[in-house]
Each structure stands twice: as structure tokens, then as C-alpha cells.
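Hi,

Apologies if this is the wrong queue. I'm a grad student, and the batch job for Aminopeptidase from Rhynchospora pubera produced an output file that my downstream script rejects. I'm not sure whether the problem is my script or the file. Here is the sequence I used:
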Amino acid sequence: MAEDFKGQPRLPNFAAPRRYDIFLEPHLTACLFSGTATITVDVLLPTQFLVLNAADLCVDTSSVSLTTSTTSCSAISPVSIELVEEDEIMVLQFGSQLPLGESLLKIEFSGTLNDQMRGFYRSKYEYKGEVQNMAVTQFESVDARRCFPCWDEPAFKAKFKITLEVPSELVALSNMPVSDEKFNGDLKIVSYDESPLMSTYLVAMVIGHLDYIQGLTTDGVQVRVYTQVGKTDQGKFALDVALKSLNLYKDYFAVPYPLPKLDMVAIPDFAAGAMENYGLVTYREVALLFDARFSSAYSKQDVAITVAHELAHQWFGNLVTMEWWTHLWLNEGFASWVSYLAVDAIFPEWNIWTQFLDETSSGMMLDALSESHPIEVEIKHANEVDAIFDSISYDKGASVIRMLHSYLGADCFQKALASYIKQYAYANAKTEDLWAVLEEESGEPVKDLMNSWTKQQGYPVISVKMNSNKLLVCQEQFLSDGSSAAGTWIVPLTLCCSSYENSKKFILTSKSDELDIDDLILNKKGKQETFWLKLNTNQTGFYRVKYDDELAAGLKYAIQADKLSLMDKIGTIDDANALCVACKGTLSSLLSLLDAYSMESDYTVLKRVISVSLKIANVVDDATPDLSDKIKLFLIKLLESPAEKLGWDVKEGESHLDTMLRAELLMALVRLGNTSTVDEGIRRFYIFFNDRNSSVLPPDIRKAAYVAVMQKCTSSDKWGYESLLKIYREAHQSEEKMRVLGSLASSPDKSIVLDALNFLLTDEVRNQDAVYGLNVSNQGRETAWEWFKENWEYISKTWVSTPLLSGFVKSIVSLFASYEKSKEIEEFFANRVKPTFERALKQSLERVNTKAHWIEGVRSDESLAEVVSHLADKA
Ligand code: BES
Ligand code: ZN
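Support response: The file is valid. Your script probably expects a header line. Output copied below for reference.
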């Protein structure tokens, strides 16, 4: 009978928890914990079984009892208790059918405060000169079961009443405010208010030596930022963003913040970037702390986005929760989209919606692989859940929301959302529930339109051709390896012609269509040479566009003549790049198009120009080593003039975007091997190394100098490597440590790369950070692969948490660009792959094959040599 419950995607629903009374006693020095769960269970259908989740817990079987209303004085015990390890469930069988209605299930258990950054774990930090343990929880997706037995699925919402027994001198936080504190010698018993209905993955606890700063929202909600003692100053920026975001969201969602308080805590060891636990949001230090003296402008922006994202979840995710992990994207895609809305309102000068196109671009990159998946993805087992926290759920999710938002209009969209939140508050919703509300409020066929984007993987490339005054459009699924596939989408097409006033909207519902644009063309009145046409105005649609030669020439003109919006400039080069990678366009035409950006000075556009340039520089090393130097020379010239305008030193009162642009440009020039940039980076590094207070190397440009140093570092002169290690060891900021880690393996010297990789496995590098050290130079990639294979046993045991282990696999595998290597890697993993990183592995291998295919395309580009000579000489 218990067999029936094994290997199932979900728990049976004949019983549901209503309230959890959880008592936990963590032992911070022994790294153990013990606890009692008293769960009010509602038996809904006749059964002899209770099936709930538990993993890595030692359950005291003699303690398990069920007190039903009919047996109120004498509790009954199960006749058997089976713990099914592979399914992480606990099956309790009772001697007879359980009475319908509520009963109390009591279970005592104990466990280890693990080092895996999931469940109930310990994080290490220094307090008064000594290393201490902090007890922390991370339950999403499926790890609440590692802390206490529970119905660990988002749809089983219940109320939580938490009590902790902890050393008296420590701060102990949970989702709700403290209701009572009783001191008992060295220990105290802290109880918290009962929570409203919530899902298990949002329960949280943090126990350690912490300090805080606080503020109040306009509604009087108390918001605190907790940090290690002495670091609260670094929490001010996040606190400010939090207060502003909360004020904004309560209006946007038209529902007040649902809890009496909000705490945000910086955790020294943390697997993800941040976690939206209800009322107790946890962060990596770099995602919460900001200090103008030590942090870059980029980090500042990252903190703002992260805070705005996690706080959006307090409504979208926590108050209204996805019914099952298939709808994870509702949580993540939406929180991502809305975080930009909040940040745009708080920092209008950051032009954050233009920066949003980075998200769209990474979503499109992943979704152009056959190994991608639909936004709504079937989840057959708990061990598959973590793997879908990827660019599809986040970036494609957020992008299709932006597409719908722009189609329906801001007001209509917001009204519908507010009504969705109200309707599903304290409950769960599926994707179709959101569409139904939006459809009702807007009167538009939202469901049909959006199903085509969320239920099938991939997206189309729209080919456009002009035929007299008609536009022929045709859609086909876009895949990075140039192959074709069968998808068709309902595409909200937009276009403009020679001016942004001159625009049109269409819905493309079939494979191809003919659009009459007579009215738009008439306006051009014979000025043939200044005619341009851009589809997908401001890149609000999740599709790519391939223009015929004539239209492509018009667009190139529009870029040179600076007629396009920033978003359209970004979209044009991004699409051209993707088409080139898929061998649907040549590298020579991509390079010619890049040349049209030579007068550009905007951060958002240049950032994309840079990322395209670096991809090209990387592929030509493998594809056409003969032309590689010349191509790099052209790319250097393209980036040199904006870099010279900005210089190395911060200008008085310069914009946030210029500060970030300087960092991008200098880093790109170093990576392209531009001698003067590398030399200047090294010169400034010497000065900075000898005087850390010197202003020659502010945090924004420091990494460019570090990479320059490492590029010149060899095993016969390891000064650069040793100096960077010294900086790493002396750094107090996690951000600074990350900068060093991200540079160490970029030396062309193989033995230095090996040293850098081995360093990642020492206890000087936190497990959460090691993946950042895998930025390996092309020359060092074979060394990295050998190192990876040799250490796989250790790596796979140490980094069990999915995002980190997948990160390892992705970083190493994507260094390569040949079919042979991809085969070799596949063989290595044949009997080593696990569900937690299988998706990441397959996608990375596909990327390797795609690059190999691109290399073939580049080699067959007959005009490349000539175009390159022309561009390099002219520049
Ligand atoms: N819910 C996630 C945290 C998470 C990620 C839990 C993966 C379990 C697995 C959180 O809201 C989140 O999305 N965090 C992001 C940062 C955000 C700014 C995109 C992260 O951790 O990278
Ligand atoms: Zn999120």
C-alpha cells in the first residue's frame, strides 16, 4: 500500500495541514538541532495513511502520535512508519481509517545544521575575532522538509506558529514578530505570532549575532536591515530601496503589505542571490550591502533590483502563490518584471527599462536551444524543481509579461493585476487564472495569445521583405544551431517606418502574412535614401527579426544617422548577432553593422555592442586565427573612442550610467588585449596595491585592472597572482573578494590557471563563491577540464545545492567550442549525471555544439577577409 505513494510527483491530497506548531532548538556549536512539530491535519477523504515530506531528519518513531477528536485523551500511534529516501516522504500507516476532520499529529525529530546552504544550515562568520556559526534556513524549493516534517508543496498553505530555544545573547528572527521571550539561564525561548496562511517554502529562521537599522513605511510597517555587527551602515541603501518599494507596491497591487513587519538579513553563506521568505527576506551579502567607498555602481543597481524583486514576491508569490512548480514562472517572471517597474520609479536616471533588454536577451539565448523548455513546465518529481529557476522562468517570463503589458496598456494591466491579487490572496493560482482575470478586465483574447508563449518552448524569428508597398512577414521558430522546428506563435507585431510617429500594430496569427503599409510608405515621399523600417518597436516582443537586404541597409543607415531609440539600437545588433551565430547571417555583415555603432556613447547600447564584440573575438580565435588579430583591432578601435572620452578617472558629477560604462569599456579593451589599456591597468594596480587608499583604482574599474594584471602573469613571475591573493585575503567586503576571484583564472598561463582553480577548493573560498572563480582563459580551458574531471567526486559532493552545482557544470562546459569536446564531455557525464543538473548539462553541451556550428559558418564566409581589411584600415 505504501508503495502507491512512491515515485509520485505530488503528495496525495486526502489530508491537508491547517496549522503547524513548530518548536526548534538549534545547537550552534555542535551543529545539530532537535524539534517537535505539532500539526493540525484535516483529513478530507477516508484513509488509513498520512503521507508527508521529510528528508535528512532523524524522526523519533516512538514520538509519532495522532490525537483525533474522538480519541481526545488517548492519542493513536501509527502501525508503521516508512521513510522513503528517494522521494523524501514519510508514510504513516494507522490501524484503521482516520476520522474525517481535524486531528493533531505530533512528531519529534532531530537533524544536522548542514553545510549545504539548504534546509536548516549553518553559516560561518566572525564575531569579536572568533569564528561563529549562524543558523539559517533556505527552504525554496523543496527543503523545508529538511528542517521539519511537513506537507512541503506550495498549495498546502497553513498557519505557522514558531517557537525557538536559543542562546540568550543571540538575535533570533522568524517570519512573524516576537510574541513572547522567556529567559532560562543561558537560553531563551522565543515565540512568534502565528502567521497567516502561507506555503512551507516561505518559512524562515535566522539565529546569530546581528545588528540592525530600521525605518517605517508610510503605512507604519516596521522594516529592518540586519547585518553582522558593525556593518549596519552598509544596509542603509537597501533599507531606503525597501521602504520606497513597499510604498509603491501597496499602491500598485492595491493591497497593503500583508504582515506586521519585514526583516531583511545579510547571510554570509547563501546559495542563491536572495530569498523572499515571508517577512524575513534573506540575502547574500553582495546582494544587500552597499558602501559607496567599496562598492561599484553596478552593485548598487544590483542591490536595488534584488530588494525590489524580493519585496514584489511578498505579494506576488507569498500572498498569492503558484499552485504548483509548473507555474514557478508566475512568481519569478513577475517579480523580475515588477522589480524594474519599482526601480524605474525610484531611479528614473538609470534607464532601467532599457537595461531590461539584457533579461530579454538572455531569455532568448536560452530559449533558442532545443534543450530549452516551455515556460509552463511539467514537474514529475521534486528533484526537478530547482533546475527550472533559470532564464526561461525569469527572463523569458518577465519578457512575455512586458510584451503583454505593452499590448494591453499600463492602466488596464495594473487594474487587472490588483484584482487578481485580491481574488487569490492567501490562496494559490495557476497561469490560466491570471489570464482569465486579465482577459475579463481587458476584453482581449489574453489566454490564446499567451498560451502560445507559455505552453510551447522557443520563439519565432520573423522574416520581413518589402514588395512594393506590401510587407511580407513570415514566422519560423528560431534555433541557435540554425536548424528549424515547427512552432507557430500568435505574435503581437509592431513596426515603425522612418519615424516613431509613423507606426502600426498587427497580430500575426499564421505562418505568414502580407501587411499593407501603404499609408506608412506614402509619408516617405520619395526620400528613398532616408527610408527605414524597424519591426518590434522598442523590443517589446519576444521574437527576432530578419530583414531582407534592402531593409537591413535602411536600418544600418538609421543607426548611423542616430534615428533609432536606444532599445531599437540594442535590438538590432542583438538580432543580427543571434542570426550570425545561427549562420543565418554572415560575420562580415555583422561586423559591418557593428561599424555603424562607432559614434555611440550610451551605456545600454554599448554594453550590448561590447558583449557582441567579445563573443566575436572569442569565436574567431577558434574559427579564423589568421584574421583574429585584425578583427580584434577593429573591435578595439570601435570601443576605444568612447573609452577615451570617459578616461580612467571618475569625473565630478558624472552619471551612474557613465560610471558603469567606463567599467564595461575598460574590461572589454583588456579582454581584447589592447596594449595601452592593459598597461595602464597594471600601472594603476601597482599604485593601488601599495596604497589601498589611493583613488587611482575605484571599485568600478578595479576588475579591469585585475584582469590586466592576470593576463601578464606567468608561472615565472607570479607577482600578480600573489598580489591579488593578498588583496583577497585582506578584503572585508564580499564584493572585493568576488572581483579577485573572477580575475584569477584569466591568466593565459596554464599552471597559474591550475593554481587559481585549486584555490577555489580551499577553505579560504566560501562554497557559495567558488563558481565565480571559473572565469577561465581560453588558453587554460583544457587545464580546467582536466581539473574538473579529477575533482568531480569532491565537487559533486560539496556543491549539492542545484544553482551552485549547475553553475560549475555550465561554467566549465561552456568554455569549449567543438563537436569532439562536447562528445567527450557527454561521455564523461554518461554515468555521473543527476536530475539536479541534467538540464544545465544538456543546455551547455548544446551551446558547445552551437559554437562549433558557428565556427563552420565563419570559416565559410568568403568575404570575411576583405571586409575585415576594409574595416580595420578604415577605423
Ligand atoms: N525565489 C528566489 C530564490 C531562489 C532561487 C530559491 C533559486 C530557490 C532556488 C528569489 O526570489 C530570486 O529570484 N532570487 C534571485 C535574485 C533576483 C534579483 C533575480 C537570485 O537568487 O538570483
Ligand atoms: Zn524571485
